[in-house]
Amino acid sequence: MFFKIKRLVIFLLCFLKFFVSGKANKKIKNPKKIIVAQTAKLGDMVCTTPMFRAIKEKYPAAKVFVIGNSVNKELLIDNPDVDGYFIYKNNFWELVKAVKKEKIDFACDTNPNLFMLAVLYLAGVSLIAAPVIENGYSPVETRLYKILRKLVVAVPHRMGSYAPRQYLRLLEPVGVFSDRTEKHLYFSSQAELKVKKFFDENNISIEREFLVGISPSVGNKIKEWDAGKFAQLADYIYSKYHCVIVITGGSGDAEKSKEMIKALSPETKFIDATGLFDMDGFKAMMSKLFLFISVDTGPIYIAEAYGVPTIDIVGPMDDNEQPPRGERNRIVKLEDRKQPAIHIMNSSDYDYKEARRQIDEITADMVIEKVEELAPVIGLKKRDGAK
């Protein structure tokens, strides 16, 4: 009840401001300060980085601020395209005050979000762009959001289309037109040294060894794939190809990694990097891989940003919306599914049973098939005597 009252009060405050200030649709020719709000998770923020680069290419002198969670702040450290970061976490009025202080010329929100749109509007941003969902349904596109969106510039976001390209459309009201969707991440020289030391201590040459990263964990459990299948996959890759298996994950992923390790063949040699690095070090470590395999989760987009070949076990996710694309990228899904159970804009409203079916019925052999397909493309060499 409190949440509903809070939403209504904020909504009404926005309309009171409208009678004083009008709509946030002013024409801006040369913006000095721009905000991009991305309040979703790690992979979504990686897919938002093309926006920062597009802004800097059009307006080199403009300052780019980002609004997001604390984890994504760490993700964007050392990014030359980002000048400032606001953390968004149950701090509505504090955020309004901080944004207002910066006197932002243009802002856009990558997701339908009533509170974020209200933050930008109440902070007095002159020009605001917000998404209107096409070709599908999004539960976060609420009635109050749709009404408030009438006070800003509505930009179509087509579900089922490539999300990084859809995000870029939000910049068009301020004169930024781009279809370049390369991702951009950076890490420090200290992280580089820490990662090199880690591999040296494990007697692994980054320059000579073919490092295959596998992450058996995922934040959203609806996308979780069986740890035993990951072990079966790792056993096959190690037995057939000259490589080193690197098990990756954050500090909260230790149990899932242990489960995979327990199921591995005694003959499979691996190193476990789970929880050993902060975000800076994790990015540096991911950049050293020659192949990365996981379900559709944040680290696979970090790998993509560093040009690492990927195999994305998309399961119930829409493979057209975010998974890495290109000659050195593959996806794994059930061919018999009529449609994906989950889209990035409706990730909280789906058929649970069907979503689980779309990940549970993916076999290790299906992923192995993609490894075999990708191996000659990325130079993964067979061991002597391997068929």
Structure description:
This protein is α/β, with parallel strands linked by helices. It has two domains: 2-174, 3-Layer(aba) Sandwich (Rossmann fold), CATH 3.40.50; 189-378, 3-Layer(aba) Sandwich (Rossmann fold), CATH 3.40.50.2000. It is built from 15 helices and twelve strands. The chain has helices spanning 2-21, 42-46, 49-58, 70-75, 92-102, 114-122, 143-148, 163-169, 189-201, 227-240, 254-263, 279-287, 298-305, 352-360, 364-378; strands spanning 33-37, 63-68, 84-87, 106-109, 127-134, 153-158, 211-215, 244-247, 270-272, 291-295, 310-313, 329-332. Strands 3-2-1-4-5-6 form a six-stranded parallel beta sheet, with helices on both faces. A six-stranded parallel beta sheet has the order 9-8-7-10-11-12, with helices on both faces. Helix 7 links the parallel strand 5 and strand 6. Helix 1 runs parallel beside helix 6 (114-122). The chain is globular, with a radius of gyration of 22 Å. The termini are far apart. The mean pLDDT is 96.
